Amino acid sequence: MQTSTTPYIAGREIAETLGVVTGEAIIGANIFRDLLAGLTDIVGGRSRAYESAMRDAREIALKEMADEARRKGGDAVVGVDLDYETLGSGSMLMVSATGTAVRLR
C-alpha cells in the first residue's frame, strides 16, 4: 500500500477516490518508561523509551489506516496526516493517521 502526505502519488494517476480512512493507536506509558524519562529530564538527552513507544504507535496507526483503505478497494492513501495527543493525565499517548483512500490507474 503506497501512502503519501501529498494529494497524489508521483507518476501515477488517481482513477477513483474512495473516501477518508483512519487508524488509531493508544499506547499506555508504564512506570518503568516514566522513570527513565524522568531521569532523562534531569540529566538531559533523548528518551529512547518514549521514542520507541511513539514509533510503535505511529506504525500501528498507519497499518490500520492502510488496512481500511484495502477493505474499501484502494491501493494507495494520499493526503496522510499524523496527529499525536496525550490522554488522561498524560499517561496515554494517542496517534491517529488520516488520509484519503484512492484507486490508481
Automatic annotation (TrEMBL):
<dbReference type="Pfam" id="PF01906">
    <property type="entry name" value="YbjQ_1"/>
</dbReference>
<dbReference type="InterPro" id="IPR035439">
    <property type="entry name" value="UPF0145_dom_sf"/>
</dbReference>
<dbReference type="InterPro" id="IPR002765">
    <property type="entry name" value="UPF0145_YbjQ-like"/>
</dbReference>
<protein>
    <recommendedName>
        <fullName>UPF0145 protein HYN04_00180</fullName>
    </recommendedName>
</protein>
<comment type="similarity">
    <text>Belongs to the UPF0145 family.</text>
</comment>
